[in-house]
Amino acid sequence: MPQMAPMSWLFLFSFFSITLILFTIINYFFTIYQPISLKEEISTPKISLNWKW
């Protein structure tokens, strides 16, 4: 079974590290966040629990 040269391992490590970093940067900057509007927040009913012991 042939062994890989150390330069090949270094290249593979750097290649996968760079792709991981680029993938996380792309996911971080291109996600779309939709803020909660105040109308939706006000329209939700608030349930208050009155405990009678």
From TrEMBL:
Give yes or no: UniProt keyword Transport. yes
Pfam families in the record = ATP-synt_8
Membrane topology type: Single-pass membrane protein
Record's GO cellular component, any one?
mitochondrial membrane
List, alphabetically, the InterPro entries matched: ATP8_metazoa
The molecular function terms in GO held by this entry are: proton transmembrane transporter activity
Family classification: Belongs to the ATPase protein 8 family.
Q: Subunit structure of this entry?
A: F-type ATPases have 2 components, CF(1) - the catalytic core - and CF(0) - the membrane proton channel.
State what protein this is by name. Answer: ATP synthase complex subunit 8
Which organism was this protein described from? Shoveliteratura triangula
Taxon lineage: Eukaryota, Metazoa, Ecdysozoa, Arthropoda, Hexapoda
Q: Which gene encodes it?
A: ATP8
